[in-house]
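fyi for ur records
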Amino acid sequence: MPAGTALVLLHPFPFDASFWDGAIGALTRADVCAYEAPGFGGRPVPIGWQIADWADDVADRIAATDARSAVVCGLSMGGYAALALADRRPEVVAGLVLADTRAEADTPDARAGRDAGIARIEAGDYAGWADDLLGKVVSPTAADDVRGALRMQMRRQDAAAVCEALKALRDRPDRTGDLARVTVPTLVVVGADDAVTPPAAAATLHEGIPGARLEVLADAGHLSAAERPEAFAAVVDDFLKGLG
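which gave:
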């Protein structure tokens, strides 16, 4: 990895930059920064924002650094933003880590599920919705303390921000056709127990991006970086070392 090139982390839904605390602590690199999506981590909640808006915001931040490029690591929603960033502003992307994410747009059933989530949250049941979601995104083997920490992170998010993010996720475009245009070194990571963006979705990324590398983490679900931070950091560190 060229000197001065930072590693930028983009968090999953519905979390904030603190999602990455465990993985950052396990990484051997010091030049790591985590950028939050609109409405998360105390950021204002813009109405109608799209995944591309987050990507453009991240691109502007990277372009303002001395290096003017970064390796971008996105997990789940962060992965959608990373793919959008690579397509829209490739000059700021020195490498990609796409974790527990997919290139495909939502299916009709998935879109309906987002709408149902919005309706439930707007009816006042954000905590119940968040608890139900947590059960779907972690591995059955996830430790109780990991589950508890993730639950706390989810519950402290702004309900209005979560609804706007659900709309952005629902309306994101299919990027399968963009994969062949990715020219930077790319690592694809997926939890073996990921039921949301399963290994088959990771295989699509791996096969579609020229020269991409695939790593499957055992005993991890959709939130692999939080469930197995040391293993996640190890594969990312190894990838970064290979960049020179």
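The radius of gyration is 17 Å. thats all i got for now
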